Amino acid sequence: MVKLSVIVPFYNVRAYAPDTLRSLRANARDDFEFIFVDDCSTDGTLEILQRAEREIPGAVLVVHEKNGGLATARNTGIDAARGEYLTFLDGDDWVVPGHYERLLAAISGLGCDFVRTDHVQFTDRVRTVHRVPHGLRDTVLRPRDVILPSDRSTPVDYAYAWAGAYHRRLADSGLLRFRDGLRTAEDRPWIWRLHREAESFAVVGLPGVFYRRGVASSLTQIGDVRQLDFIRAFDQVLEETSRDPEADRLLPKAVRTYCAVMAHHLESIERFEPAVARKLRSMSAASLRRMPQEVLADTLNSLGDRRAGQLRRVRRRSVSREVAA
Fold it and tell me: CA-CA distance, 195 to 201, in Å (whole number)?
């Protein structure tokens, strides 16, 4: 029986895939499987994966005929996974030897639906430990109990699918699936759904994943239209949270996070192509109008002058143009 399935999407990461694959080989165990999903790479990544499938114990290669994005590739891996527990890794990151054995021991020992772990961010040879924003460790809790408060970072703001492990029952119930086609921010509605609907979780240390930041091909570094998928992602968060029995309590957190991310993109709008920048402004204005207005007003009053000013200017400009039209 497979105890742990590690789902690893790859897309045009030829320069980094060998490091990722070496780290997986150092984590191999008879009851582990590594599911490689090639998302229609064009740079030679597929050839590296074909060789790795033959050389790494437990490796399984699945190849997309057309590029679907990270969310869709992860869903492909979930469909192929046979493990009692599942976890994720990105094709340009890596893990330390023995990490998955320790991760499996943590979640099986605690007996909860999922665990969240710390990680190490790797940027230009600088390594920084990033911790799950929750102080209580190795203790099983109700996930929805740690969504708040609204004005501080909480585990729903730590939206890294690969920083943790998940029991198969979450996959069987559909909670582990991502929204197909999302090109960025795909982890946001996913982590919110887990915290609203799963029954138990725990935070453990285990900073064994090395997250490679600043990769030129990463969507976080590219100012094209795919970056605007954060709006679709957060619209999903708001839509699903508004149907929750505790919507009145949870929506202020969802709106505040949405507004903070939107303001961040508007503040760095110069990195977008001009047509995309115009679309960002218009889509942001439309999304602000869709939000629950009383919650939005309270959010803007508490968000801080700089970020709130960005959002108010976008909203005013949009209203002015509608009046002029």
Answer: 9
What are the distances in angstroms from CA 152 to CA 89, 256, 274? Answer: 27, 10, 34
Report helix, strand or coil for 244. Answer: coil
Helix (H, G, I), strand (E, B) or coil at 223: coil
Q: How many Cβ atoms from other residues are within 10 Å of residue 133's Cβ?
A: 15
Q: Considering only CA atoms, which of 160, 212, 184, 216 is closest in space to residue 43?
A: 216
d(CA 61, CA 74): 13
Between β-strands 59-63 and 164-167, what pairing exists: parallel, antiparallel or unpaired?
unpaired
Sheet containing strand 209-212, strands side by side:
94-95, 209-212, 119-123, 126-130
Give the chain's residues under pLDDT 50.
Answer: 218-221, 323-325
Q: How many Å apart are CA 176 and CA 291, to the nearest integer?
A: 26
Q: What are phi and psi of 87, to 5 degrees?
A: -150, 175
Contact indicator for 167, 84 with CB cutoff of 8 Å: yes
Q: What is the pLDDT of residues 49-65, one digit of tens each?
A: 999 999 999 999 999 99
pTM of the model: 0.93
Q: Residue 173 gets which letter from DSSP?
A: T
274 cis-preceded (ω within 30 degrees of 0): no
Q: Is there a contact between 87 and 5 (Cβ–Cβ < 8 Å)?
A: yes
